[in-house]
Write a structure and sequence with these properties.
With about 200 residues, the chain is an alpha/beta fold. The protein has helices spanning about 15-30, 55-60, 75-80, 90-100, 125, 130-150, 155-165; strands spanning about 5-10, 35-40, 85, 110. Helix 1 (about 15-30) crosses helix 6 (about 130-150). About 40% of the residues are buried.
Length: about 200
């Protein structure tokens, strides 16, 4: 059975399609044909628009393949079709919690939670810094891949479970490849990040 990941952001032209194509690239390199990645909008500002030119430039520079697409708007029924829904910032997460059915809320996570970092992925529509956004997106996607492969530090898994009761990780998402590569008890730095997770 395919595990379906959906990345979302405000308009689905900058951050979430960047994450979609970075994740697809990583999955292809890892031979993970059992996982799919898509992206969607939470607001209607850019419906039908293609990827922002800044996102296209940064993906090209990093050798990430992409294709023309149209921004589309997520709704509750469509959200139910996915196993994991990843927002880019706290505003996305608030929108998602209002949008999805209550039973789907355990699927919701903020991107950098996977990397053990408690902060948002900045919107380059406002900052203009597509390189900084790419770095965060790549970090989050790489950490998701480690979770898929069962190679994530236990502190990251514990963080996800405490934040959102990440139910799908229990068996199908982990693929039963648990690896204890870090100790259970980890210190936390001044940013609220488990210190052994900083290497994500």
């Amino acid at each position: 059975m395919t595990v379906k990941i959906l990345f979302v952001c405000h308009g689905n032209i900058c951050r979430s399609p960047m994450a979609e194509f970075v994740m697809k690239h990583l999955l292809a390199k890892a031979g993970r044909g059992d996982v799919s990645a898509e992206s969607a909008a939470l607001h209607s500002d850019e419906l039908g628009s293609d990827i922002h030119s800044g996102t296209r430039r940064v993906l090209t520079r990093h050798g990430i393949p992409f294709e023309p697409r149209r921004a589309w708007l997520l709704d509750a029924a469509k959200a139910s079709e996915y196993d994991l829904i990843v927002g880019m910032d706290s505003y996305n997460m608030a929108d998602l919690r209002r949008l999805v059915y209550p039973d789907d809320r355990p699927k919701l996570h903020r991107m950098l939670e996977f990397a053990g970092v408690a902060r948002d992925v900045a919107d380059p529509w406002y900052t203009g810094d597509f390189d900084a956004t790419y770095a965060d997106v790549e970090s989050g996607c790489a950490a998701i891949l480690r979770l898929l492969d069962g190679n994530a530090p236990k502190c990251a898994k514990s963080r996800l479970q405490s934040v959102g009761n990440f139910g799908i990780l229990s068996t199908p998402f982990w693929k039963s490849k648990e690896k204890n590569i870090h100790a259970d008890n980890q210190s936390v730095d001044s940013q609220g990040t488990p210190s052994s997770c900083n290497s994500f």
